[in-house]
Amino acid sequence: MLTPMGVGKEGLMNLEMAPEGFEGTVAYIDGGDRVAQRMMALGIVPGTRIRVIRNSAFGPLIVDIEGTRIALGRGVSSKVWLKK
Amino acid sequence: MKTLHRLRVALAGNPNVGKSALFNVLTGIYQHTANWPGKTVERKEGFFDIDDIHVEVVDLPGIYSLTVTSPEEEVTREFLANEDIDVVINVVDASNLFRNLMLTIQLLELFPRVILFVNMLDVAEAKGVKIDLEKLSKKLGIPVVGGVVVTGQGIDELKKVLKDVVRGKVHFHPVYPVYGQEVEILEEYLAKYGCKYPPKFAAVKALEGDEEIIKLLKEKGITIPEPQPQAISQIRAEWLKNLLKDVFIVESYEPKQTITDKIDMIVTHPIWGYVVFMFAMFLMFYITFTFGGYLSGLIEMFFSWLGDTVSTFISSELWKSFIVDAVIGGVGSVLTFTPIIFTFFLMYSILEDSGYIARAAAMMDRLMHLLGLPAKLFFPLILGMGCTVPAVMGTTALEEEERKLGVYLVGFMPCSARLAVYSAIVSAFFTGYTGALVIVSMYLIGFFAVVVGAKVLKMFGLARDTMPLVIELPSYHIPHVKTVLYATWIRTKEFIYKAGTLIFVATIIIWMLVNMPFGVKPENSYLAILGKAIAPLFYPLGLADWRIVSTLIPSFAAKEAAIATIGVLYGGVQMLKNAVTVPQILVFLVFFTLYTPCMATLGAIYSVTKRWKVVFLSVLFSFSVAYVFAFIARLVIMGV
Question: Which CATH fold would you assign to the domain B5-166?
Answer without folding.
Answer: Rossmann fold (3.40.50)
